[in-house]
Amino acid sequence: MSIRLVTFALLVGGIGSAALPAAAVEPAPPGAKVYIIWPKSGQIITGGKFWLRMGLRNMGVAPAGIRKPGTGHHHLLIDADLPPAGEPIPNNRNHLHFGSGQTEARIELPPGRHTLQLVLGDADHVPFEPSLVSDRITVIVP
Fold first, then answer.
1. Whole-prediction pTM
2. Taking the alpha carbons of 96, 41, 53, 127 in that order, is the dihedral positive or negative?
3. What does the H/E/C string look like for 79-142?
4. Phi/psi class of residue 22: alpha, beta or left (left: φ > 0; alpha: ψ in -120 to 50)?
5. pLDDT in tens, the chain (142 residues)
6. How many separate domains does the chain show?
């Protein structure tokens, strides 16, 4: 299976960067929520290319490596389960890092049925406690 990011969205903390050592797990601010704005679950993605739009409520977005209370950055899980609690989110074709603080990115998926889910990570790519994850959605590429 081939999954490509069609933009420069992964430059910082992106594909090819080494995982950072685990740090103390940061607490999630009360009322924080991460969500996928677009696509919607069940969306048919003709051609497989689309703009993923990511949302975050009651927190801010900051690039990887920036330690500022109440901030984190997005990670997209494609056809993957949530990573183990307290460990850095893997960085591979099924776990895309948006370490520059992106809130949208051009994604390309191969034909088939795919699940997408966002996880918010701290400066070291470690999920917050409790984990801030979006609903898992399904998209179809004909």
1. 0.84
2. negative
3. CCCCCCCCCCCCCECCEEECCCCCCEEEEECCCEEEEEEEEEECCCCCECECCCECCCEEEEEC
4. beta
5. 555 554 333 333 343 334 444 457 999 999 999 999 999 999 999 999 999 999 999 999 999 999 999 999 999 999 999 999 899 999 999 999 999 999 999 999 999 999 999 999 999 999 999 999 999 999 999 9
6. 1
**CB within 8 A of 61, min separation 6: which ones?**
71, 72, 73, 74, 101, 103
Q: Give yes or no for a contact between 105 and 5, defined as CB atoms under 8 angstroms apart.
A: yes
CA angle, 41 then 47 then 53, to 5°: 45
Instruction: Please state the φ and ψ torsions of residue 22, each to the nearest 5 degrees.
Output: -65, 140
Q: What is the distance between the alpha carbons of residues 56 and 80, in angstroms, rounded to a whole number? A: 21
What CATH number is given to the structural domain containing 45? 2.60.40.10
Look up the domain containing 100 and give its range.
4-141
Give residue 125's region: left, alpha or beta (phi > 0; psi -120 to 50): left
